[in-house]
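quick one before i forget lol
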Amino acid sequence: MIDKSDSTTVWQRLAANVSGCGNPQKLETVQSLWSGFGSLFRVATDNTTLIVKHVNPPVDSTHPRGWQSDFATQRKLKSYQVETHWYQHYSNRCTSDCQVPLFLTSEQSRLERWLLLQDLDAAGYPLRFQSLQVDQAFACLDWLANFHAVFLHTEPDGLWATGCYWHLDTRPDEYQAMQDGPLKQHAQLIDQILNQCRYQTLVHGDAKVANFCFSNNNTVAAVDFQYIGGGCGIKDVAYFIGSCFSEDECIDYEDALLGRYFNTLNRALQNNYAKEAASVVQEWRSLYALAWTDFYRFLNGWMPDHKKIHRYTKQLAEQTFDQLPEWK
């Protein structure tokens, strides 16, 4: 632990220690953290660059959409604790098929946190996108499949017991804001089915297109593990597809996208879980509509006019409601 008065020099000391550079320099701010909780910035050392994630919560947190509360603030603070624990204790299990930044070091004070990571731009992943072509989405789905295979049956010790930032237990305010109807009525059951499925892994928890970094030859690495925890992998898949494709594209590409993910997952499971692979694929495929509807529940309470609440979303919700008697 350190005193907050040292906060202006902490990242320089940490960067110097891990790089051997006597005078690390801040190059640029990459982005601000959500709700003003700090920043992500790039640092130059003698031979390379690295990334510093500096968590510095504001005295008065203001959510961009008005969802500020003590409960929400504590959720955000825990998310940074979880992310640090993930990098320290789990990230080294990731293979080249599910690349993540190398963890360099971290430190925290009573109020602040510093996380130093490999700079993926320098490591060969300099490209970012907001929407994707199908072949680019395949690269991300391959990453997710390999990641879920690596961490199948892993207990989320020190992580979120249930991953994904929209998890029902972490979103009581948004749930209360929902209008009465089937989506709200069935929210608890949908959550229960997803949480109690037979095959659990670690889910990224925020696997949107913006959290994938691309190389020039269309391989990817992923960042932002604040909401990593236990769950069925299809939750990441449904959320990812919704993050980068329009309503019509979701309809047109569904079979190809799900086919790619499950084919890669099946292959990735052959090394250690060959006897279970077919059952994992069968269970998670059956939960696709439920996983999409679970995220729809969050959107409906958080921002009911969100562009992702479209015809495809509503079709999957109706499919889910029709299926629920089979799950009871």
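fyi The two ends are 49 Å apart (CA to CA).
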